[in-house]
């Protein structure tokens, strides 16, 4: 349940922050789906083992890309090739955008670190 709520809250954050055009620009949708798959825990090692999809090299990126494509296909009536092209166009920048967490919360410990970083955010920039 936490993953689903986090996934949807990433979409809500994108909607408020980036003014995503959900219905006309598939690249906006692709970017939000990449971010949601990356930050929600959809591609955690435990989940991937349960799905019997796991690898050693760059597996997290592959999983995020695949989950984003599947999410786009679930909500849009477009071909898989169009969805893949949209994800490929935005993947690098959207995968590296980790706001509002500042890091990928792979587990509860990383989520606590992200929350601590958020609480201390003003300390580091107060003297600029």
UniProtKB/TrEMBL annotation:
UniProt keywords, alphabetically: Hydrolase, Metal-binding, Metalloprotease, Protease
Recorded GO MF terms: metal ion binding; metalloendopeptidase activity
Keyword Transcription: no
Segment forming the signal sequence: none
EC numbers: 3.4.24.-
EC top class named in words: hydrolase
InterPro entries in alphabetical order: Peptidase_M76_ATP23 (IPR019165)
Pfam families: Peptidase_M76
GO CC, alphabetical: mitochondrion
GO BP terms: mitochondrial protein processing; mitochondrial proton-transporting ATP synthase complex assembly
Domain of life of the source: Eukaryota
Record flagged with keyword Hydrolase: yes
Family: Belongs to the peptidase M76 family.
PANTHER family the UniProt entry points to: MITOCHONDRIAL INNER MEMBRANE PROTEASE, MITOCHONDRIAL INNER MEMBRANE PROTEASE ATP23 HOMOLOG
Protein name: Mitochondrial inner membrane protease ATP23
UniProt lineage: Eukaryota, Metazoa, Chordata, Craniata, Vertebrata
Primary gene name: ATP23
